[in-house]
Amino acid sequence: MTKTPFEEEILSRIRPTPEEIEHLRTISERIIAYLMEYHRRPSMVVGSVARGTFVRGDRDLDIFMLFPPDLPREDLAKEGIALGRAIVDHFGGTAVEKYAEHPYLNARIYDLDIDLVPCYHVASAREIKSAVDRTPFHTRYIIPRIAGYVDDALLMKQFTKAGGVYGSDHMTEGFSGYLCELLILHYRGFNPLIRAATGWRPGLVIDPENHRTRSFNEPLAVVDPTDPNRNVAAALSLDQMCAFIELARAYQEDPTEAFFTIRRPVSFTRKQVELAVAERGSALYTISLPTPPYVPDTIVPQLRKSAAAIADLLERSGFPVNRTDCRMGEDRSVILFELLNDTTSPIVRHIGPPVINGDNARRFISKYIETSPLSGPFIEDGRYIVEVRRPYTEVATLLSSRALLDAALGKHVRKSMAEHGWDVASGADCWNEDLSEFLAAFFERSSPGVRIMRMGRE
Amino acid sequence: MTKTPFEEEILSRIRPTPEEIEHLRTISERIIAYLMEYHRRPSMVVGSVARGTFVRGDRDLDIFMLFPPDLPREDLAKEGIALGRAIVDHFGGTAVEKYAEHPYLNARIYDLDIDLVPCYHVASAREIKSAVDRTPFHTRYIIPRIAGYVDDALLMKQFTKAGGVYGSDHMTEGFSGYLCELLILHYRGFNPLIRAATGWRPGLVIDPENHRTRSFNEPLAVVDPTDPNRNVAAALSLDQMCAFIELARAYQEDPTEAFFTIRRPVSFTRKQVELAVAERGSALYTISLPTPPYVPDTIVPQLRKSAAAIADLLERSGFPVNRTDCRMGEDRSVILFELLNDTTSPIVRHIGPPVINGDNARRFISKYIETSPLSGPFIEDGRYIVEVRRPYTEVATLLSSRALLDAALGKHVRKSMAEHGWDVASGADCWNEDLSEFLAAFFERSSPGVRIMRMGRE
Q1: Which of A166, B101, B122, B427 holds its CA 20 to 30 A away from the CA of A268?
Q2: Is A450–B343 a contact, with Cβ atoms under 8 angstroms apart?
Q3: Are residues A101 and A156 in the same domain?
Q4: Can you give the CATH number for the domain in which B371 is found?
Q5: CA A139 vs CA A25, A27, A127, A131: distances in Å
Q6: B358–A249 CB contact, under 8 Å
Q7: CA proximity to A415, closest of A307, A289, A295, A310
Q8: Which among B445, B452, B453, B458 is the top mutation candidate for probing chain A, defined by the most A β-carbons within 10 Å of its own β-carbon?
Q9: pLDDT of residue B300
Q10: What is the ipTM of this complex?
Q11: Residues A282 and A214 occupy one common structural domain
Q12: Which residues on B lie below 8 Å from A204 (Cβ)?
């Protein structure tokens, strides 16, 4: 509600202009009228444009076309796409077909980015047949309540965007627009929300309609007012929740423009990568594979899982991992490893059975008594131990080997690697133009609050 | 009781000869008579000679001189040593003063190694004033019971000696002679003991007199028949208990002479150390310090503790440790480390407080925001992390630094290192004549049963 003069100044820059609002309203009304008049198809504007909570310059329009719930799913998709194409033809524009839970059309009409989404028109959010059916209910819930909090919602969205915690996709694991709005409503404004967030703890449950029917395991639970079973904050990771807590604290201590300024990502040249690796004295390796043909929300978690599985294999193989990261690109995806050393001693110890476990102990001994291990079997803490030779003493050989495919990789990642192979690069050779921002972020990694505080000191 | 022909053959070689027995009896009787006649001092023969359970060639005689319990401790020591010296003078011999819980005289008279030990003559083992007072009670307990089991006790002693598990000192952590005898009595013979041991499990409690007054944490508890509070097997480590289990199994499967053959320890030349290090591709380091002036049972555990503490420091410093060992020598003691790498990347991550812990989080951030860490602070699993530069990237520098003195070293070990400094050696330079057996044992480490089984295959 009440804003500081500083926040009013920010708002004056991020509030949509009357022209923008008018333009979006005109276009959306014309599309809705066209759908009803020519096709007898009811539709509605959803999302931040419908709720008046979009930030200046965000020219994204979401139009949901409502179909009866008894229509088979394939027909919904077919008719929805056909209707979308009719709109694009009628108004003149371009479109690409996309796919979330079911297909939709991403169109460009005039200068607007418009998603044309078919969905089922169900009676309540508990009867939805797919996630998109829920969106109209969200819009209907927010609209009557957001009046008086629109500026707060704008500040929250700009704040989370500038802080790198806006977006509920699997790469960001942050705050969705709807979540921002519900938090603003719950705390009655941006500043009360910031104040509260400085004291947030994982396990916090916010239930605006006080109707939840189950418990939630996620670090933050905001029970969907339109569905007591659903956590609107399910996508928010612990670390992004913590990043928001940090941003809130830093903002409360020293509120500056930097908290609302969206910066261009830093980018590293090949030379800068070379210098960073030299300074850190670590071993940098990437594996790159053809990106499997699925959406980021499918592939990004698989890349993360694969990175963790390979890191585990590296650790077990004598190559301690400092950090990993991954990036899904248009054509190729990359998993990056920073290691403390890229060669290791050939010794590896196998931990055998407890000596008191007679049968296993006999089997273990008779296996190793025939061969000539480096040492052992000997007894340590009641178990048999044997020291044998590692198959890999150089990490590059291991990363290039088919042994990688035995790690617990993501399904599509493994398939892509098994079918097409993968490239291994090290040091400055990891760099290419596409990875210049990714590598900069890796080396200059810091939490958003720390980054902003540092800017204040420069 | 019943022995196999093979065991009878072993016995024919290890049973003391009648001449030996006669010689020991004569000398001991003369010493006891001398003490009573010239000094009115009662005394007794204890240990395996008294019990007739000594192995051929073991010419150790233990004579305990019994003093009244009201004699002050200093007087006991003074009078005991004086009496010992009188014996040596009378019979003609040499002696050195030694120190266990109190002083005693280690004498050489004729060709025998004789310990002359003053102790208190108490009424029961529960009234003892020092550990040595207990010994006469053990002898009095065993003598009337061991008849019929002397051969079994001899086999058990020879078996444990050849297997490297005989001795209750801190270096061996094995079976004392008294423990061997109690086990033989409990299981009624060597072969029943071997059979039982193949199925032993840690936590086993043997209580011959069924009088224990407390529980025991050690892997094997054999309650002292002369003291319900005491575990005769307290010094036996889990690993040496397991080694005996393994020896018992291997002996049962294939009883050969090797199980009773005491071998000369293997010894490595400098060249052999060089080859072993090359084959293993590991980094070998020793630190050597002046041996602190205390008995092995004080210093050996301190060397072990120091090895573990330094290994922990090395691990935390980026140098993964494969194995450590230590050796207490006459002049110098050595702690040995085998590492997987001897250089490491300068990156080290400091794990900071949880982000939700506001005060600590603020302190952590403000500390690292001023400096320029390699990366961070950033957030991982809800905690702050910062990557900074390690003080040591080469293990030789760390092992030579005073930082070692901050590790949880044994008291006298730290004192020796702090006062006199220490030497660091690496690779083949770790070798010297004194360490030739120690290093061979380190590289050729295997459990005793495995070693004997391998010999059978050669």
Answers
A1: A166
A2: no
A3: no
A4: 3.30.70.1550
A5: 16, 19, 17, 14
A6: yes
A7: A289
A8: B445
A9: 94
A10: 0.88
A11: no
A12: none
| Distance between B425 CA and the closest CA of chain A, angstroms | 19
CB contacts of A338 in chain B (<8 Å) are: 347
Average pLDDT over residues A60-76: 91
- Chain B residues whose CB is inside 8 A of the A219 CB are 382
A377 and A442 assigned to the same domain? no
Asked if residue B137 is part of any domain, the answer here is no
B-interface mutation test, from A378, A444, A451, A452, most B Cβ less than 10 A away: A378
pLDDT, residue B111, reads: 85
Q: For residue B410, give Cα distances in angstroms to B304, B311, B418.
A: 8, 14, 12
Distances (CA, A) of A67 to A41, A80, A128, B244: 8, 9, 12, 79
Q: How many CB atoms lie within 10 A of CB B29?
A: 11
Terminal C-alpha separation, chain B: 33
Q: Residue A458 — very low, low, confident or very high, per pLDDT cuts 50/70/90?
A: low
- CB contacts of A453 in chain B (<8 Å) are 365, 369
- Pairing mode, strands A283-290 and A332-339: antiparallel
Check whether residue A353 and residue A339 sit in a common domain.
Answer: no
Give the B window 370-399 contacts with A, CB below 8 Å. Answer: 374-382, 384, 387, 393
Rounded distance between C-alpha atoms, residue B403 and residue A109, angstroms: 69
> Closest approach of chain B CAs to the CA of A379, in angstroms?
6
Structure tokens at A333: 């995806």
Query: Can you give the pLDDT at residue B370?
Result: 81
> What does pLDDT average to in each consecutive run of 10 residues of chain B (458 residues)?
86 92 91 94 90 86 92 90 93 84 87 92 82 88 93 96 94 95 97 97 96 94 94 96 97 93 93 95 96 91 97 93 95 96 91 94 90 91 95 96 96 96 97 96 93 80
**Would you state the structure tokens that stand for residue B273, as one six-digit string?**
């150390």
Return the SS3 of A3. coil
Domain boundary residue among B219, B237, B260? B260
| A59 lies in some domain | yes
| Residue in B with minimal Cα distance to A315 | B320
- Residue numbers of the domain that contains B322: 270-343+393-445
Measured between CA atoms, the residue of chain A closest to residue B452 is: A369
Closest chain B residue to A441, measured at CA: B375
Q: pTM of the prediction? A: 0.78
Bridge partners, residue B124, by sequence: none
Tokens of A83: 């209707």
Whether B339 and B351 map to the same domain: the answer is no
